[in-house]
Amino acid sequence: MLFKKEIYLNHDDLEDFYIPDEIKEMMKNWYVITKSPYSDSFYSSDQIDWCFKPEGSYRVSDHWNFTRKTGRIHCVTNKEVIDNEEVCIARYEDGIYRVIACYKKPIETKRQR
Fold first, then answer.
1. Cβ contacts of 51 within 8 Å, gap of 6 or more
2. Residues 97, 59 contacting (CB under 8 angstroms)
3. Distance between start and end Cα atoms, the chain
4. Which end of the chain is more exposed for a tag (fewer CB within 10 A), N or C?
5. Helix residue ranges per DSSP H, the chain
6. Cα 23 to Cα 67: distance, rounded to the nearest angstrom
7. What contacts 93, CB < 8 A, 6 or more positions away?
8. What is the rounded CA–CA span in Å between residue 99 and residue 105?
9. Is the dihedral of CA 43, 47, 48, 53 positive or negative?
10. pLDDT category, 13, cuts 50, 70, 90?
11. Which of 111, 86, 112 is nearest to 99 (CA)?
C-alpha cells in the first residue's frame, strides 16, 4: 500500500517559509499546494513521486539538478540555477523543469514559526 507523504498547505502557511513574495503570489493561483516531507520544496499537485511528476505541474524550490543515490539526476532544469541562493519556480514539461523565474532566497520568513 502506498502512503501519501505530502503535506497540504494553505496560502497563509506560505508565510512560514523562505519563499520570495513574487513566487508566493504565483502559488496563490494553484488549486492545491503540497510540501515535500523531505525538504522545503513545494508542488502544485498531490500526485508527485520520486519517479513521477504530472505534466504541467509546478515546483518551487532552492535546490535542483541533484544526484540521487541511484546516480540519476533529479529535478532537471532547462537552464542553470544557483542552489541554496535562489528560489525558483518551474513547470514540468517533457521530462524536465522549465524555469519560469528565480529570485534571491529571502533571509528571514515574515512570521516566526
1. none
2. yes
3. 33
4. N
5. 21-27
6. 25
7. 55, 56
8. 16
9. negative
10. very high
11. 86
